[in-house]
Each structure stands twice: as structure tokens, then as C-alpha cells.
């Protein structure tokens, strides 16, 4: 039964649904924007730049605040304006010139009304975990192929490796083919699982954050890989090894595929 059709308070809805319903009701007041063809590009760029800016600020402060360097994987490296601005410029250019026309076409072909009801909390969490696992698998295969096949690496993936020491704004410094490949994986996964729009938005925020964190160059005590037990999640230290050594740690987030195929290289323990 739809909560919005209830003649009494939403007592018939599950606790998990009631927990998310106020948030979803609030978001639905922005339905005109969410359903516009501009939303996907605005949301993606705003979220990405918003997550990158704190790390850009840290990079600016790092030469003047020695305490920050203890958390920096490469303490003597700070990206210059000549590195930061091309990365930001390419991200904006690709989203305006390539991503927006595709989202406009998708919007024109498949307009859809937002559902009245929020998703179940456990359903939202389960779908996000599944989306992350699926994306991790898809990108692992894509990434491994683009490193093992020289033509694929030179033609498509080499762009992303032009900055050997990672920094946040280099996260999306990639070829158009790579950008569309990652976007395609995202789109297919949420469609395959039948994710609620709130789940889709939440997944995209988490996925963008994890990508930025992996390229940030900072290993904090609260970094994601330190919060996930048993070494299941590689995180920034593992991905930094990939950028410096090229032959290991191909999965973007988790470690199981690299363990299975023997491409996992553990990051050195801090202080050793």
C-alpha cells in the first residue's frame, strides 16, 4: 500500500521506509529540478568538485603545516596550479560537451515520474553494497584489460596515469572512453537491480567520494580502508601503489579480485 494513499499516518509502512520517507518527501519538493535534463550533470559536477575542494585546500596548506605531511602518502609532493587547472578544466569540458548530450537523450527517451514512497532502509543499503560490488568487478576487468593490452592502454587509459602522484582533482582526469565506460557501468547496475531514485543518488554520492578519496593522496586514521575490517577494502594506499607501480591493485575498491588473480600488493604499513 502506498503511504500517500493512507487515510491515517503511515503506520502501515515499515520502520525502514518511515525512516527515509521524510528525506524523500523533502527531495521530491525539488522534483522539477531532479527530473530536468540538467540535473545529472549539475549533480555530478557539484558533488565531485565539492569532495575535491577540501583536499585541494589541504594540498595548499601542506607546505606550510608540517603536521599535515604525516598523513600525506607522498609528503614532498603538492600539485601545482599547472596540474590542478587542466584536470578541473577537462572534467568540466567533458561533462558539458559529452555527458550532457547523452543525459539529454536519455531524458528525452525515458522520462519517468518519481515514486511517492521512499525505499526500505535495508533495501537501500543492500542495493548500494551490490552496486559497489558490481562496479568493482566490472571496473577490475576493464582496468586489467586496459593495462594488459598495450593498444588499449596507449589509446584510452594512459591519460589517467599522466600524474604519477595522485591528487583529488586527477580522479576524473581520463579519456572520454573511460569516463563513458564508468558511467555505463553505473547506469547498467542501478537498472539491473531496479534501484529506487534515492538509492541511485546515494550510490552516486558514495561512489564519487570513494573515487576521490582513492586519488586524494592522504591516508587519514578515518580513511575508508581503515574502517573496513579484514583488509577487504584497499583504499587510497592500495590505489596509490597502482599509480606508482602499474602492475598491481587493479580493483578500484575491494581486494578480493586482486587476491584471486594474484595482482594484490599490500601497501606498506605506516611507520615501517
Give a structural overview.
Mean pLDDT is 90; it is low at 1-11. The protein has helices at residues 15-28, 31-34, 39-61, 81-109, 121-148, 150-157, 176-193, 197-215, 224-227, 235-245, 256-261. It is an all-alpha fold and 272 residues long. It is 60% helix and 0% strand. The longest helix is centred in the middle third of the chain and has 29 residues, at 81-109. It contains eleven helices and no strands. Helix 5 crosses helix 6 and helix 8 (197-215) packs across helix 10 (235-245).
Summarize this entry quickly.
It is built from 11 helices and no strands. It is an all-alpha fold and 272 residues long.
Q: What is the helix tally?
A: 11
Q: Kindly state the percentage of residues in helix.
A: 55-70%
Q: In what range is the share of β-strand residues? A: under 5%
Structural class: mainly alpha
**Unreliable stretches, pLDDT < 50, 5 or more residues?**
1-11
**What average pLDDT do the residues reach?**
90
| Termini separation | 58 Å
Provide the gyration radius in Å. Answer: 20 Å
Largest sheet: none
